[in-house]
Specification:
Blueprint: H1 57-63, H2 67-80, H3 82-99, H4 103-116, H5 120-139, H6 146-159, H7 167-180, H8 185-202, H9 205-221, H10 225-242, H11 245-256, H12 261-277, H13 290-296
Length: 346
């Protein structure tokens, strides 16, 4: 591929639902030549335009867990251009997601972006990022910021008109809050489903990989292992096709939860090798990969139980491009999920 492209980690066939090509769903979308299969969907308010700040080197660094390096490339532009500042802030917030650290850097970048917004769309983008950072701080950080997360996402909703490009990402992040902070699986399902439909309609492939994962996790919590396996496999396939390396290990671990023992062991071993190759991120995944992976990747959360994450695992911002399989039919789960029902998210 060209210098602007990102090669998939595999041939991209693993995890493809058996009926994906005969579904009658939205047509598969191909990325324009010369750019990676993602676009300007790092935050609400962008128009999906593929340019130097959302493709090429920045994407390659981001997908390989090099958020600091990517942010440095955007540093000077962020001081002059509010859109660049918002992209940079989202990158550093995503670093918090996978490392459970670097909170001050993300906060500083977001404050810079908030100070520079000049349009309603940019205000919505900044508010959505603020809500996501507060959510991450609640599940991975030192204190509860639920009120801040809800208020910021509420502001985003008020600023974004119906059908705006930022709506699917907002719905996804609202689903995270509902599932992992409010323990309301029904509200989470509704929000994830809206986000999933929006991602499919707009070709937002990376966001779709996350919505697949969360809908699958809710299906698994409800006892539907077949539907869960389909969703986890679709999520993994999309992340491999995108070359989103830092997100592949969590997808492998999720699929392992619904695999037969021999396959599950292989999937976890592959995830452990990938975590090791990326310098020990995601840090919160180590406990779910077992003792062998924990030995390979020191720095995970202390005392993390084998086979389950120590806390909820937030998702990632969306991106545009490659083909997306249609969503499986699903009914919303009934009732509210307790702490034990929280699923890994990313």
């Amino acid at each position: 591929m060209s210098e602007h492209g990102t090669a998939p980690l595999s041939g991209g066939t693993r995890g493809r639902p058996a009926d994906a090509d005969q579904s009658g769903g939205p047509p598969r979308l191909a990325a324009p030549p010369g750019v990676p299969p993602h676009g300007g969907g790092l935050h609400p308010g962008t128009d999906g335009h593929l340019d130097e700040i959302t493709s090429g080197t920045v994407w390659r660094l981001r997908s390989r867990a090099c958020w600091q390096e990517a942010a440095e490339l955007l540093g000077q532009g962020a001081e002059r251009d509010p859109r660049t500042a918002l992209v940079r802030a989202e990158l550093l917030i995503e670093q918090c997601l996978f490392t459970a650290d670097h909170w001050e850097e993300a906060e500083s970048a977001l404050r810079l972006a908030e100070a520079g917004v000049t349009s309603t769309e940019q205000r919505a983008a900044a508010a959505c990022a603020r809500g996501f950072l507060a959510y991450l701080g609640s599940v991975l950080g030192p204190r509860d910021r639920l009120d801040e997360a809800q208020a910021a996402l509420g502001r985003t909703s008020a600023l974004l008109p119906s059908g705006a490009p930022g709506r699917p990402l907002l719905d996804f992040r609202r689903g995270l809050v509902a599932e992992n902070l409010l323990r309301d699986r029904t509200a989470a399902w509704i929000a994830y489903r809206r986000a999933h439909d929006g991602a499919l309609a707009s070709g937002d492939t990376l966001l779709a990989s996350s919505t697949w994962r969360h809908l699958a996790a809710l299906a698994l919590a409800g006892g539907d292992r077949v539907r869960a396996r389909e969703g986890f496999a679709a999520s993994l396939r999309l992340r491999e096709e995108l070359g989103f390396m830092v997100g592949v290990a969590p997808a492998l671990a999720a699929l392992a939860e619904v695999a037969e023992p021999a396959e599950a062991q292989q999937l976890r071993a592959e995830a452990g090798r990938l975590v090791q190759s990326l310098g020990g991120v995601p840090v919160w995944l180590v406990g779910r990969l077992g003792e062998e992976a924990a030995a390979l990747t020191p720095g995970g959360p202390p005392g993390a139980p084998r086979g389950a994450p120590p806390s909820a695992r937030p998702g990632v911002p969306g991106s545009r491009g490659a083909g997306i399989p249609p969503a499986p039919p699903a009914d919303p789960p009934d009732g509210r999920g307790g702490r034990d029902s929280r699923r890994p998210v990313s």
